[in-house]
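@channel sequence for tomorrow's demo:
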Amino acid sequence: PIVSFMRFSGSGLASSQTKSKILNSLIGASQHNYFFHFDCEGGDTKRELMEGVVDLCWYLPAGKENDTLPEVVAFTNLRGDAQDHIMQFTFLQQVSFMTFVLLTQEDLKEDNKVLMLEELSEAPGELVLLFSDLTNNDEPRLNYELKDCGIIKMKTKNLAVINKTIQSYIINNLKKLKSRSQQFKTLKSCCKIAREIGIRVDEHDPECCAGQEQAQRVIKAINQVRSSSSTKDEMLPLQSQALWHEWSKYNKEQHRRLQRGDKPFTDYNIEMDKKKDEIRKQQLLKSDPPTLTPVMKLFLSYLMQQKGLIKAYFLQWLKFMLDERSQQTLPPLLSDYENCKRELQKASEDTKESDTEMVRKKLANIKFEMNVASLGLEHLFREIGQMYESVIEVPIEDKDKQVMQDLRSEVSCLPTLAAELLVAGYPLELMDGDASHVPMTWVKAVLDELQKLLKVAHLFVVSVLGIQSSGKSTLLNTMFGIRFAVSAGRCTRGAFIQLLKMHKGSGPSDYLLVVDTEGLRAPELDSQKMLRHDNEMAAFVIGLANTTIINIKGETPSDIQDILQTSVHAFIRMKKIELNPSCQFVHQNVASVIADTKLKQGKTNLVENLDEMVKYAANQQQVQMKYTVFDQVVSFNVEKDVWYFPSLWKGSPPMVPVNPGYSESSKELKAALIRLTAEKKPKFTIQDFKSQMDKLWVAVLDENFVFSFKNMLEMTVYSELDSKLCQWSHALRTEILKLQTTLENRVYSCDLKDLDTVKTIAIKELKQKVNTLQDDLLQKLVNFCDTSEHADIMINWKAETERSLKYWCQKHQDQTEEYCSTLVHNRRDRESLDKLRTNIYQKIQGPVRHLATMLKGQDMNEEALRKAFNKMWADQKATMKFKQNLVNTVISMEKSIEHTLLEIFGREYESMVTKRMCECDFKSGPKSVNFIEHHITIPKGWWNRFKKAFGSLSETLERYRPAVEQATEVFLEVAEYHLNAVCENARDFNDTLSYQALINVVTEVNSFNETQETFYFTEEYKIDLCIVVGRMALTRFVEMIKKNDPYTILENLREPSYIKFKNQVLKRRMEFRVANSLSFRLREPIKMSVIDCLVPLLKDEVTLHDDRFQSKHCLLYNIMLDLKEKADFKCYSLHLTNVEQSMRNWIQEYTMQYCTAKEDGQTQTRLQVLASSELKKKIKLLTSAAKNVVTADLESLKDWIIRFQHNLASSFHLNLDELLEDTDEDEIEEEDEEDEGENEPDFEYFVDEFIKEIEREGEKLASSFIHLRTQMGKWKKQPHAILANDMIGCCKQCPFCKTKCEHINPDHPGDHRVSIHRPKCLGGYRWVSTEIIVLDLCTESVESDNSFRAKETDGEFVPYKKYRDIYKDWLIVPNSSRYDSSYWKCFVAQYTDEIVKYFGNKNPPPGSVGDRTIREWKKLEWEKVKEELKESFNL
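C-alpha cells (generated this afternoon):
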C-alpha cells in the first residue's frame, strides 16, 4: 500500500519541514532522516531542484509487537505546494490508498485548493486532513463533500501524539481493505498510471521494453519446463550432475588418484582421460545448435544479436526476473531445511539410527531441491562455458571434420562475448561452486579475449574470503560500487571476478580485478566435504590475488584461523609455484572506540597463532630455514593490515540506516588497497594472471592431504598417529619376513611327496601367528589413543587406523599364503625341468615335424628359423604348465615398490610419492639423486650464520652440494649392499623384499640426520632417493628371478635345444623336399598311365553302351538317320564325297558327347568318373608300394628311392636318376657324438609326407581331369579313332553312285558290294548331251543299254553291261525293286537344286521324264522310307 503526504502552502506549521519531520518520526527514523527537511544539515539552503519531487520510502516491520505498522507500507512525500504540481498530485491521487494533506483553515478559503481536496475525497483512497492551526476545540469549516474526511488537529500536539493518530488511521484502513479483499497497487500498475498521466517512465523506453520483452521470453521458456527434480538438468544439461559434475570428479581423481588401487599410473590416466572424453562427447551432442534447449537457444540468440543498451537491459531484466523466481521458490525450501535440521538434531538425541538415517535422506533431498530451484544468470553463462569447452576439447577426428570446424567457428565468439561483458562490468564465474571446479579452458579463453580487448593492461587482483553471511559482497560493493549478489544462504556458490578500471595517476595498475567468493563453513554441506571445499577455495583465491581481504565478524573466529592454517600449509607444500599473496584482516561489528584497547591482545594472539602455524608447517615440510613467520608466506603487517569496521547498520534492522562509520572504514580500506597497487609487486598482466591461475589450480588439484583437515592441530594429531602406524607396520613386516624365511626353508628341504602337508601346516601356523600380531597391534593402538593428550581429536581416526592395521595383517597373510603356493609350485616345476633335460629330443620331435611340414620344403634363414623356434618353444613351455606368480612381473614389482613407499612415508606425502612415481620410469630412470633446493634443510642457528656469510639461500645451498652428493653416494652403496644380501638368500620375490630394500635406505638417512648439525635431508630427498633405490632393486629382483624362476631355468635349455631343433628341421625339410620332388616327378607317369588305360576303357564303354555300334550296317543306318534329322546339305555333301571321313566325324562327335555326359545323380562326366577311378587305383598302388619298402637295412633316402623304383618297375616306367642326383643329405651340421643316433633319416616321417604329397598330386590330377576332353586330341591313341577303325571297314566307293563298300574288313576277299545304291547324280553323273543330272540307279543302269565314260575309260564310252571290264573288283547286283534306294531318292527330290549346283549340272526340264521322276520321289513317305532302309540293312 502507498501512503502519500502533501501540503498546501500556508503559514505557521504548514511547511515542508513539518511534513518531512512527521514522516521521519512516523517510520521510526530516530537516528537518520529518511526525508530531508529544514532542520537537517544544509536544510536551510534555497531549494533549486526538489520542487515537485516525490520522495518514497518503504516502512519494513520487524515482526515485533512494538512495530509502528503491521505490514510493509510505501510512504511518498510531495515536495512543495501541491497546487503547483498538478501532474504529481494527480498521480498520487490515483495510486495512494491513503493521502494525508497538511493545510490551514485559510487554505479552505481558496476554491482551487478546495476543488483539489474534493478530488482527493472522491478518489479510491482515504483522505486525511492535517490542520496545523487547529486545536482540539476548534472545528474546521468544511463543505459537504469533505464531511467524511479524516481530520487531525495538530496545534498544541507533539509529534508523538500526531504519529499515534496517523498510525491508527493507517492500521484501521489496512484492516478495512483486508476485510474487502482489496488489492494494493503494484509498481507495474503505478507505471501504467504514470504513463497515462504523461509522466515519463524509464521502463517505457524502447530499448528497455525490448530488453524486458526478450527477458520475459526466456523466463517463459524456463517456466515451460516441467517442474521436477531434473528441471535444471533439462534446461542446462551440460552442467548437470551426470556430465560436468562427473567430468570434474574424474579430473580431480586423475590428479589425486585416490581410487586408483593397483592400476598402473599410465593405465589409470588413460582410463580417466577416456571417461572425461566420453563425457565431453556427450556434452558435444547437446551443444549442436539443433540440440540446444529452448532456454539456451533464446538466451544465446538475444545475447549475440543485441548490442548496447538493449543487451544491458536484457541482462538486467533477466537478472531481476530470475531473482524474483528464486525468491518465490527458495523461502519454502529454506523453511523446510531449517525444520529438517531440527528434526535431525532431535533424532540424533533419541539415538534411533533408522529415524536419523531417514531424516538425513530427507535433508539431502531438500538440499538437492534448493540447488535445483536456484537459477541465476551465472548458471546460463556456466552453460555457455561448458558448451565452449565440449566443442574445443573434443578432437576433430572424432567427428566429421567439416562439421567440427563449423561448430568451433560458431562457438569461437563466445569467449569474446564474455570478455566484453566483463569489461562492461558484469561478473564472470571463475570457479563453479556447485562442482567445486574451475572450467579452465573456458576461463582461459575469456582471458585471452580480454587481453585482445585491453591490449597491454596491468591488473591488481583483490579477493575476499570470509564465513558465510559475513558481509563479503556488501563490503566489495560498498568499496567499489560493483554488483556482486548480496544475499544470505548459499544458492549460488563459487568464485566470481569483476573488472574495474582505475583512474590514471592512481597507480601503475590499469585495472582492479575483484574476486568475490562464496561464504565458507556453510552449514548445508557435509562436514568433511565442507572442509575440503572451503580449504581448496581459500587456498585458490588467496594464492590468486595480490591481496586478500579476510572478512571477519567480530574478533578472529576459529574457523578463519583454521582455514588460514590449511591454506598456508598448502602454500608451503606448493614449492614449485612462486606465490606472493598478502592479506588484510577486516573485523566487522567491532566498535572503533574499543578496537585499540580491547582488541590489541587479539592482534597479538592472531599473529602468534599464525606464526606458530607457519613454523609447524615449515618443520613438517623441512623448510624451516625459509619460513619462520606468517609474513614470509603471506605478506601481512599486524599494525597496518588489520581493520576494525563498525556494524553495517546503525541499530537493529530493518528500519535502521547504514552506519556512516562503516562507509568511512570502507573508504579507508579502499584507499589502502589503492596504495597497495602502487607498492605491491609484481603487477599482473592478463597473461600472468592466467598462467598463475592455471598453475595454482593444478597445485590445488594435486594436493590431497592438507585440505582434508580442519586445522593445524588436527594435522599434527593425524601425523602422530600416521607415524605410529608406519612403526607398527614396520614391526609387522619384520615378523612376516621371519615367517617367510622359515617357510621357504621348510618347502625346499622336505620331500616332494610331503609338499602339500608342509604347505597346509605352514599356512595354519601363519594364520595363528598373524592373529596374535594383530591383537598386539590393536592393543597398542588403544593404549596410544587413550593416553594421548589429544585423545578427543584422535578418536576421529582411531577406527580408520584400526581398519588399516587389520587390512595390513590380512594383506600380509594373503601374500604369504600366495608366496607359499608359489614356492610349492616352483619346487614341483624344477622336478619337471629335470625330466625335460633328459627328454628334450623327444619333446621337440612333434613340433619339428609339424614345422617342417608347414614350411613345405621352403628355405629359412637364421632369423626366420629362430623365430619359428621361439614360437615352438613358447608353445612347449605353455604345455609344461609352470606356474608363474604375478609378482614375478616387472609391473607387479613397480606396484610393490610404490605401495612400500606409501607405507613408509604415510598419507602426508602420498601426493608427492604418487606424483614422483608417475614421473619416474623405472626401466630408464635416474641412477642417482639430482640435488635440488628442497632436498635439505638447515637448522635456524646455522642458517643465520650462513646467511651472514653467504647471503642468499641458493648460494648457501650450493655450498652443501659436495656434501650432499657424497652422502648420496654412500647411501646408494649401502643400499646396493643390502640388496645383494637380500637377493642372495631369497628364492622368489615378495613385497617384503622391496620393503627391506627401501626401509634400510630410509633408516640410513635418518641415522645420518641424527648425527648432523649443519643440515638435514628432507622427506622429499628420501622419496627421490628411494625411487632411485627402487630402480636398483627392480634390476636386482629381476636378476634374482632369472636365477631361481622355473621359466628362467627352462630358458637355459633354449640354446642347446635350438641347435637340435635347427638340425632336425633341416633334416625334415630335406626329407620333405625329397618326398615332394618324388611325388611331383610321379605326376606325369601317373597321368600317362591313367590315359593309356582310359582309351580301351572308353572304346569298350561306347560299344557296350549303345547298340548303334553293333555292326557297320547299324552304324551306317544311324548316321543316315542323323543326317536326315539335321537336314543340312553341307553335312550330306561330305557324306556324298568322303563317306569314311563323314563316319569318322560322326563317331568322334558321338564319343565326345558320351564322355562329357553325366549319369543320373553324378556331378562328374563319364570321362572324369573313369579317369578318377583309374587314378585312385594308381595312387593306391603307389602308397602301398611306399609303405612296403623295407627300411631296416637302408642308410639314406637314396637307397629308399632306388628300392621304391625297383618295386614299381612292372607298373610304371620311372626315371628317377635326376632326383637321386639332387638329393643332398650333407647340408646338416654335425652334432655331438651322443646325438649320432638322431642323424638317421626319419623314414616314417618321409613315407608319411610322401603319401600326403602323392595324394595331394592325385587331387590335383583329379581336378585337372575336368579339361580331359580338350586334351584328348593330344593323346597318342584316340578312343574314337580306334572305334572308327573297327566300325568303318572297307572304304571303297561305288564307281557310279559313290556308295561305300559294305564289307567290315578293309582287306576283305572278293568283290566290293553295296546293298543300297544311290541315284548316279550323287556320284556326279550327267547326260553328256544335255548336262542334265542322271537319276538312274546303278542297279538299273547295269541292266540297261546305256553307256558311260569316266577317267578310267580314258573318255571313251563303255556300255554299262561291260562295267566289270573296267571295274573288275566291283559287283553291282541288278535290282528291280523301286524301293531299294528310296532314302536317297527322297534326298535327291529334296535337294535337287543343291545337288545340281554342287556338281555343276542341270535340272531336268519341266515335264520331262526326269522332272516327273523327281516329283514321284517327293511323294515317298518318310516312315516307309525309314522302314525300307532298316530292312535293307537287315536290322
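heads up for whoever presents: Confidence is low (pLDDT under 50) at residues 11-17, 946-950, 1226-1237.
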